[in-house]
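Hi team, as promised in this morning's meeting, here are the two structures we talked about. I've kept the exact order from the run log so nobody has to guess. The first one is mostly here for context; it's the second one we should focus on when we meet again. Sequence first, then the predicted structure tokens.
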Amino acid sequence: MKALSIVAAFLGGVTLGAAAGILFAPEKGEDTRRKIAEVLRKKGIRLNRAEMEDLVDQIAAEVKDAE
């Protein structure tokens, strides 16, 4: 159970970090997606293109709801 909490906290942190990056990034969406994918790969998380698009959509919805 403790490991699950750690994983959930990590994924929450990744999500918030990515959301902040998208919110404040003056770059094109494609460039931002590439940078997010690079950060996730460095953390050992591999996503295919469809999974990355889903993650970006979720982050965008969270940021939109927070406004």
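And here is the second protein, the one for discussion:
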Amino acid sequence: MSDAKTVRGAAARPMSPHLTVYRFRPTMTMSILHRITGGALYVGTVLVVWWLVAAASGPEAFSWASWFFNSILGRLVLFAYSWTLLHHMAGGIRHLVWDTGAGLSKETSTKFAVGTLVASLVGTVLLWLLVVVL
């Protein structure tokens, strides 16, 4: 009778790969962040809908939404939402490039991963500098 913990006398191993098997790489980080930002976009979209509904509901409702988005917490939420949006977009572009078969080597995919993070951070800062200036 075969023991469930051994296969042909070998030590037990996971049935499928998991994070402890692999060396952590930038591409893994970007994959995880892409999934997290995708989920966070749902929350941010609810806030956008709240703002639009408040604008359509009249001055009193809109004043509450404006108060929130002009507060320090509201600005932080908007900053995080804009980074989330730009990061998810950059990750989507990276995946679109990969779908063509380009950039799949370890070195190139790592450069794409780092570039995704840099592009999203730089894009967010530039966007907020434009918002502050205008």
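Starting points for discussion:
Residues 26-57 form the longest helix (32 residues).
The two ends are 75 Å apart (CA to CA).
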